[in-house]
Specification:
The structure is a single chain. Helix 2 (about 90-100) runs parallel beside helix 4. It is built from eight helices and ten strands. The chain has a six-stranded mixed β-sheet with strand order 6-7-8-3-9-10, with helices on both faces. It has a four-stranded antiparallel β-sheet with strand order 2-1-4-5, covered by helices on one side. The protein has one domain (about 1-215): P-loop containing nucleotide triphosphate hydrolases (Rossmann fold), CATH 3.40.50.300. It is an alpha/beta fold. Helix content is about 40%, strand content about 25%. Helix 5 (about 165-180) links the parallel strand 7 and strand 8 (about 185-190). Bound molecules: adenosine-5'-triphosphate (ATP). Adenosine-5'-triphosphate binds near residues 36, 37, 40 and 42.
């Protein structure tokens, strides 16, 4: 369980996060929708330990983590651009987190092969990152994160660089794998449809102020999320095509 309490952050005199408070139960995916510059990346970086906070607290499983260095938080931050070792194969990229934990070869072989199969990457295992498509690289990046079973996965518009079709495939794969591995995740995006697809609970970040919704119904009802205007648009298209018929 993640508990974020009254988090505030300024850069110089400019407030970027203002009293951000929410909880995220284990095994849930919080989708946070927000326009460019609303503070999404800053929030994720604070949770990952890559940025400091001016006020507030972050607790994971009831333990405050603000003084815990990033490498000991068991939190993985994934951005739009997957970070892979260019000289290692797909298999070794995914295996890396287990090798540094000095697991035996047979265990590594089994766990990595299982995960590659779950990510539909078995036939890419021997390739290097520069021989993969963007969607495949992003899947390897997921694999590197999931293999170490982090307590919290942070995703910063991870599919932002992908074309619409690949993006839809990746969203479906994300939903399946995250539920299979019972991951707790915070997924930030500026795409309403993506938020609704990947999230099990929902938030909206606007100029550093986070609204956490009680239900998907409340999220959809907030005009800022754009769902109502999109529905109105499709209704108007339907009406127009009926007139044409
Ligand atoms: N290190 C920094 N120093 C000064 N200002 C910063 C710094 N990092 C971010 N900011 C400012 O804080 C605000 C929020 O930035 P942040 O990167 O969190 O936005 P974002 O919501 O992730 O935006 P985008 O979707 O465009 O990436 C922006 O106005 C940005 O210019």
């Amino acid at each position: 369980m993640l508990a974020v309490d009254a988090l505030s952050k300024k850069f110089g005199q400019t407030p970027v996060l203002n009293n951000v408070t929410f909880t995220l139960p284990a095994g849930q995916v919080l989708a946070v929708l927000g326009r460019s510059g609303c503070g999404k990346t800053t929030l994720l970086k604070i949770l990952a330990g890559l940025e400091t906070t001016d006020a507030g607290d972050v607790r994971i499983d009831k333990q405050s983590v603000l003084t815990v260095p990033p490498e000991r938080r068991q939190v993985v931050y994934l951005s739009q651009e997957p970070l892979l070792f260019p000289h290692l194969t797909v298999f070794e990229n995914v295996a890396f987190g287990l090798r540094i934990r000095k697991l035996d070869n047979a265990t590594i072989e089994r766990q990595v092969n299982e995960l590659l199969a779950d990510l539909e990457l078995s036939d890419q295992a021997k390739k290097q990152p520069n021989q993969l498509s963007g969607g495949q690289r992003q899947r390897v990046s997921f694999g590197r994160a999931l293999i170490i079973k982090p307590r919290l996965l942070l995703l910063d518009e991870p599919f932002g660089n992908l074309d619409a079709q690949t993006r839809a495939v990746m969203q479906a794969l994300f939903v399946r794998v995250v539920s299979q591995y019972a991951m707790t995740a915070l997924f930030v995006t500026h795409d309403t449809r993506e938020a609704l697809t990947v999230g099990t609970c929902f938030g909206y970040l606007d100029q550093g102020v986070l609204t956490a919704y009680e239900s998907v119904r409340d999220f959809v009802a907030d005009p800022r999320t754009g769902v109502r205007s999109e529905l109105a648009f499709w209704e108007s298209v339907q009406l127009t095509s009926r007139t044409i018929d």
